[in-house]
Amino acid sequence: MTFTREKDFGTPEKTGETVSLTIDGQPVSVPAGTSIMRAAAMVDTAIPKLCATDSLESFGSCRMCLVEIEGRKGYPASCTTPVAPDMVVRTETDKLRKLRRGVMELYISDHPLDCLTCSANGDCELQDVAGSVGLRDVRFGYEGASHLDGCKDESNPYFTFDPAKCIVCSRCVRACDEVQGTLALTVDGRGFASKISASQDVGFLPSECVSCGACVQACPTSALIENTVIEKGTPDRAVVTTCAYCGVGCTFRAEMRGQDLVRMVPWKEGKANHGHSCVKGRFAWGYAQHRDRILNPMVRDSVDEPWREVSWDEAIARVASEFRRIQNAYGTRAIGGVTSSRCTNEETFLVQKLIRQGFGNNNVDTCARVCHSPTGYGLKTTFGTSAGTQDFDSVEQADVILVIGANPTDGHPVFGSRIKKRLREGAKLIVVDPRRIDLVRSPHIAAAHHLPLRPGTNVALLTAMAHVIVTEGLVNEAYIRERCDTDAYAEWAAFVSEPARSPEAIEDLTGVPAADLRAAARLYATGGNGAIYYGLGVTEHSQGSSTVMAIANLAMATGNVGRPGTGVNPLRGQNNVQGSCDMGSFPHELPGYRHIADSATRALFEQDWAVTLDPEPGLRINNMLDAATDGTFKGIFIQGEDILQSDPNTTHVAAGLAAMECVVVQDLFLNETARYAHVFLPGSTFLEKDGTFTNAERRIQRVRKVMEPKNGPDGKGYADWEVVQRVAQAMGLDWHYTHPAQIMDEIARLTPAFAGVTYDLLEARGSLQWPVNGAAPEGTPTMHADHFVRGKGLFVVTDYVPTDERTGPRFPLLLTTGRILSQYNVGAQTRRTANEAWHAEDRLEIHPLDAENRGIRDGDWVSLRSRAGETTLRALITERVAPGVVYTTFHHPDTQANVITTDFSDWATNCPEYKVTAVQVAPSNGPSEWQMQYRAQAEQSRRIEPAEPAE
Amino acid sequence: MEGTGAMMSTDERLAYMAGQILRNFAVKGQEAAIAATVDHIVQFWDPGMKARAVAMLSDPDAALPEDVRAVFARVQKDSAPA
Ligand code: SF4
Ligand code: SF4
Ligand code: SF4
Ligand code: FES
Questions:
Q1: Ligand 3 pocket, A248 CB below 6 A?
Q2: CATH of the domain spanning A377-570, picked from 3.40.50.10860, 3.40.228.10, 2.30.110.10, 3.90.1150.200
Q3: d(CA A725, CA A730)
Q4: Model pTM score
Q5: What Cα–Cα distance (Å) separates residue A204 from each residue in A56, A266, A494, A882, A947?
Q6: What is the pLDDT of residue A118?
Q7: Residue B1 included in any domain
Q8: What is the CB neighbour count within 10 angstroms for residue A786?
Q9: Does ligand 1 have an atom closer than 6 angstroms to the CB of A753?
Q10: How many contacts (CB atoms, under 8 Å) link A and B?
Q11: Which CATH number describes the domain made up of A159-289?
Q12: What are the tens digits of pLDDT across the range B36-73?
């Protein structure tokens, strides 16, 4: 692929009746509402433009795009003039050329003419337009040129604003408003003196700006430009790939110079992101080249010894022989593995295949256990499939958006921007969250209702909403009769109608005023299309699965499943949580969510893999650790996960790992878990491999290799799937994949929902939403369209059972945890990028009242103590949290928020209860003893001995 | 459960987990709750966990609540070779 910019049609796409017209003698048919500019671009007539770009509504300020229309006076701007039937348009006449040249002269007289040394040279729209209008001379002189020289804003680590190069087209301002929805930029002053500024001229970094880069992408000149382009020059080729950070699954053009990544530009054709992205995907890819990255395989006999670098052959042989030795000594079920939600579908599929086929047991689990396992259980039980019901575009047709336990503007920023856009268009918002998340109140957006419930009372609150809907007669009876199990409905309706489940009865428990709860329930039931989006604030509870089912009940009762604008949608954390679950990462399920006890499914795999499979479910991660402590589980293969940092109760995890004889970690960095590892297999980044990720909308998208894997002696590296294949071969399995496409073929062969998926089809369609099969050869944007996948939708009675994690005199506060925009999960990648500029440490949010009671001032070090452990961090005093509730993120190993979290977990799936921990907070002098010890031990366990010289 | 979250032994945890599942099904009535819990354990627990649960039945030191004992007894019956 050679480098070309993505085509810019000038104004956004419209849908409407077809209108026919003539442009420069060519007949054109386009949807009504389309601009003349876009219609012309569709027949490859590029009308010069500066202030228009197709990601933004037209503005009509530059007067460059003038055209002549037969029978109309004057020279209308083609970007703001819609087409009309039988219109006759001319885009090139002597008069137009003269007018455009005049406008161009004005622009250029105020613009430095240092094109040759400008970082956008060759990739500048101003340059292009000057060329296309035939500008040869500037009658006004160039005096205006230098009045802004030397005023560059370089505060943002990823891009530079140079006002001298700015033509004040306001594309950046509009991108920030319309696409991102942050409204950080303004045009100050007028005429030649007008200037773009970030939040009243404070500079980009300290401003409201969230560094999404939409303005940089919209800028036609080098006024806003990526620092990497300044450093490396413009790219010469582009490869489309998928972001490896979050479950939105933005697709990007990775723009390259040779093997060097110059910049990531969100792909306009990407169905999940439509040309937008957040700071992580666009800018935070520097970790791929970070010096901390481990590039050689390493082994050691005990975790007290320093690491020894070895060849790939030696490392792989070691893994195979250790695992076989352990199985001979302790039994087939004494080893297991963990798949990664960061790796591709193909890699995840291979790891679970290695375990089921090669290890001969089902001891496979995934980090999705700690985030969305209740989604799988809850949605499968009620609807029949373990996934969200909609595509992201569906939100454009939602009238009421109910966000529960999710913080989309931080956790799923690009989708957060879509929600905001829909809210600015008039949709209503209900937020159920203990904390006042940004969505509750931000520019031009105010939630109709924010229900700040006490952590741990989700089920009670949702059941009370159901109470209102049922007792006030707001249910959609026709829908229920047609699509749901009516007996189960009757039982459920009777249950929720009991007076004990009314909003008034639970007011003290949840802390939510009954009147607000009633109003919110009425709005959801009667406000038109109701769409529910939820996150970890729903799942990471002792009743996570019940909460998911309670949500599903609400949606069914109001008829809000099965068409665009409605639905129940989990917002997934990591990029491939959906995929890793689909691929059979849970110990009781083969790929496609089929129980291991189902002999027909097992037979299918047994035949394909030529083995007999263990029909019993395997161990979950926490049970593997228990078994390790008890001495029955001895070896583990962990791909791309840091369970010591991401799993609850760090002390328990550490004890389990320490009790094992062979811990194998495959990752980019020596993560926390690797402190207990005996073999380290260096991983490859998403830039270094082919494969697919599946995002939160069930959308399967290609990941494409843009550079060679760096992990291996002499630069001879391997993609993660190749390493797993080598381990499998060393353990005697007959695997011979030469490309991930063949793995996908196997997945399709064995999994009905993937039956129609091939790399060729992905290439042709860009992406596919499963199920893709005979009934839906093009994939399925909306699930349960005619009927529920399980047949009849199943109402499940969800009784509120309080968590055993209780506050009391010793631990009077409730801690809940979350994430922020610039960091990702445990932060292994983002901490190794300039994103640290926004979030250098985890802080404890505490209400002013609670802080004052304890003599804590903003910024003070405080100790945070629970029944499980203690850590220290600095306080942030804020009214975002209610009195009695404290909140922190968990991005930094120094904080180790999971030292605090307990072993309590969801009753059905053991998803840990991260969102509720009883704690006490007190002033402190600095890091706790535990943290100091931990740091010392961490350093000790990371020593690497240089390899012995080869003979 | 003041103070026990972090320090359960594996046996205690298994009994605790069974009790927690029971409580979430309790609204169905005791008989149905026991049946649903047994079904859940059969579907989701690995053989080692089931074996431990069953072994607790004959361990005089295991303090099992009556309903949890009933569940484990049923698991034992269901997994006994026919
Ligand atoms: S910074 Fe770029 S996009 Fe913004 S007004 Fe200036 S030239 Fe236009
Ligand atoms: S980077 Fe994003 S948030 Fe920041 S000013 Fe640009 S568009 Fe706005
Ligand atoms: S982190 Fe998520 S929202 Fe940000 S670019 Fe990547 S996929 Fe998109
Ligand atoms: S492009 Fe139409 S007025 Fe600027």
A1: yes
A2: 3.40.228.10
A3: 9
A4: 0.89
A5: 21, 21, 56, 31, 46
A6: 86
A7: no
A8: 6
A9: no
A10: 79
A11: 3.30.70.20
A12: 999 999 989 999 899 999 999 888 887 888 889 999 99
